[in-house]
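Q: I'm building a small set of examples for a reading group on sequence design. Run inverse folding on the following structure and report the sequence directly after it, with nothing in between.
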């Protein structure tokens, strides 16, 4: 009997020594969002685990109470003891630097102004960020305003796509500054010792004769082709089932093939795909192996879901492994933006991108498609990734973005660039920045910050301000000084030093009809955008007047400017039909 008891006791000790328990729980951030792919180290064994795509974990241990350390980029590590008998909800706190990165960003900013109400816009399953148009502000109370300088052009080609489909354009799809960015205005080379050059004109306002128009032309330095640094480019290509349409994956394959023609031997290309498979489609390859790269592009095929989150992680890891110090390190994401597996919300994807924002790896987003195109998602990702954003509606646009304007698209001369302008209240009663409208979400966030932009080589943009002047005739102003002072703050690529350059806008009024054609054409583009947005500032003129102004000022040798005239004519027909239908009702 004693022998049996001893055997039983020994057996129980052995079982207890080999007992299996589970540590179970979930990992969230301070806003109660689940965090996937957090790194978990089990202290008793040293084994490494991770939270799943749902943010939960289940870890086998031999202890009823065990310790773990949880870590994730952008968050403070957390070490904690856990009981296996309970389900645990662990909260990771955001690092101070990461919290700063995740703030909503403004495109323009005037202190102490409060936004009004605005609704969100969607078209089918397409999504667009809700924008609030900039209004007039008093120069004596709010003399300073600022806006991000960037090279984004996506809005124009997306607007063109709607009009070519003979349909109206969602108002929030119209970003005036991107329509202006689309055109190559007469380039003014900056001084030899500066990244930026300036020119300005003041004239009578074409849509409000009692006001004046300030046109500020900003040009960025062009890189010397012989001195352009080597590139480490990772093509991140959406090959999911939603891309199986002629204007999606086939268009992207054609676009990337065009880009390959411009590669140099010192450039490195990799391809990551996500869809039915996620992984490295083409290992890092020298630009001299063009045929190998073209063949790899041609062999891509669509299918499966859209695990964009996993694709982004894989692409950044690959870009980091091939990082070129002092080079152009960039992920080029090409998609319709329809992420449906893993982290899919704008906030989750923003957080993912901001974790890589300070790594020196830029993000360029190329949008394609229609119907489920997610403009809002791609626009945010590009800005969070210190990059730029374009929409490809046809092969000609792909050639424009990736061949003719390659240096503007892929090679930056300034980062985190934004322009601040201070108006002279002795000359200006009220002023209104045209374009650079802010997202409603950013405006209502009290900790939002002005977002700087990436500026590509040789980029040239015209910014417009409508001005309510103190004096009807500038000669009556006498010696009141300059109309405004301009300051641009920026950083050089791969540099942390904040730099500044300045310009003074003289107050000399030129009759609108005497302005150089470039500035009159830019005015027609702004008027076109306002009509599409149904802006209250577009009530004083018609489509016909925009067509006339564009036709008279467009460069006869510039096919893109000439195309604009036909697009405005097309818009006139579409919107005239809409008005007739409304009247009948």
């Amino acid at each position: 009997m004693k022998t049996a008891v001893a055997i039983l006791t020994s057996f129980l000790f052995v079982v207890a020594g080999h007992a299996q328990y589970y540590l179970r729980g979930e990992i969230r951030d301070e806003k109660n969002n689940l965090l996937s792919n957090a790194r978990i180290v089990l202290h008793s064994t040293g084994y490494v685990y991770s939270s799943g795509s749902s943010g939960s974990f289940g870890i086998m241990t031999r202890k009823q109470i065990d310790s773990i350390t949880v870590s994730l980029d952008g968050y403070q590590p957390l070490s904690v003891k856990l009981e296996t008998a309970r389900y645990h909800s662990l909260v990771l706190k955001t690092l101070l630097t990461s919290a700063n990165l995740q703030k909503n960003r403004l495109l323009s900013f005037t202190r102490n102004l409060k936004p009004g109400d605005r609704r969100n816009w969607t078209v089918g399953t397409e999504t667009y960020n809700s924008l609030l148009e900039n209004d007039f502000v008093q120069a004596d109370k709010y003399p300073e305003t600022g806006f991000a300088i960037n090279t984004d052009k996506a809005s124009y080609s997306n607007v063109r796509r709607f009009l070519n489909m003979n349909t109206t354009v969602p108002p929030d799809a119209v970003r005036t500054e991107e329509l202006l960015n689309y055109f190559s205005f007469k380039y003014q080379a900056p001084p030899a010792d500066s990244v930026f050059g300036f020119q300005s004109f003041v004239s009578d306002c074409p849509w409000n004769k009692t006001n004046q128009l300030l046109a500020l032309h900003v040009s960025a330095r062009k890189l010397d082709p012989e001195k352009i640094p080597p590139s480490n480019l990772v093509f991140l290509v959406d090959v999911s089932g939603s891309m199986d349409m002629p204007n999606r994956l086939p268009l992207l394959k054609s676009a990337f093939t065009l880009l390959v023609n411009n590669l140099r031997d010192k450039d490195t290309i990799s391809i990551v795909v996500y869809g039915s498979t996620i992984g490295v489609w083409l290992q890092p390859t020298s630009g001299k192996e063009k045929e190998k790269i073209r063949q790899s592009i041609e062999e891509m095929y669509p299918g499966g879901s859209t695990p964009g989150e996993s694709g982004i992680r894989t692409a950044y890891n690959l870009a980091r492994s091939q990082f070129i110090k002092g080079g152009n390190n960039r992920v080029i994401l090409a998609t319709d933006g329809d992420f449906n597996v893993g982290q899919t919300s704008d906030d989750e994807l923003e957080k993912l991108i901001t974790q890589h924002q300070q790594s020196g790896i830029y993000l360029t987003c190329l949008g394609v498609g229609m119907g489920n195109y997610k403009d809002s998602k791609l626009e945010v990702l590009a800005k969070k990734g210190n990059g730029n954003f374009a929409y490809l509606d046809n092969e000609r646009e792909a050639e424009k973005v990736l061949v003719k304007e390659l240096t503007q698209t892929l090679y930056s001369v300034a980062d985190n660039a934004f322009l601040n302008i201070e108006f002279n209240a002795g000359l200006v009663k009220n002023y209104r920045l045209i374009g650079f409208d802010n997202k409603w979400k950013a405006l209502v966030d009290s900790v939002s910050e002005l977002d700087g932009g990436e500026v590509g080589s040789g980029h040239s943009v015209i910014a417009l301000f409508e001005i309510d002047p103190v004096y009807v005739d500038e000669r009556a102003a006498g010696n009141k000084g300059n109309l405004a002072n301009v300051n641009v703050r920026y950083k050089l690529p791969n540099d942390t030093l904040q730099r500044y350059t300045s310009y003074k806008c003289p107050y000399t009024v030129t009759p609108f009809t005497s302005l150089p054609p470039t500035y009159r054409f830019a005015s027609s583009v702004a008027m076109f955008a306002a009509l599409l947005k149904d802006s209250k500032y577009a009530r004083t003129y018609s489509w016909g007047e925009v067509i006339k102004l564009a036709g008279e000022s467009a460069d006869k040798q510039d096919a893109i400017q000439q195309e604009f005239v036909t697009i405005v004519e097309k818009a006139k027909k579409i919107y005239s039909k809409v008005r007739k239908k409304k009247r009948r009702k």
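The chain is about 30% helix and 30% strand.
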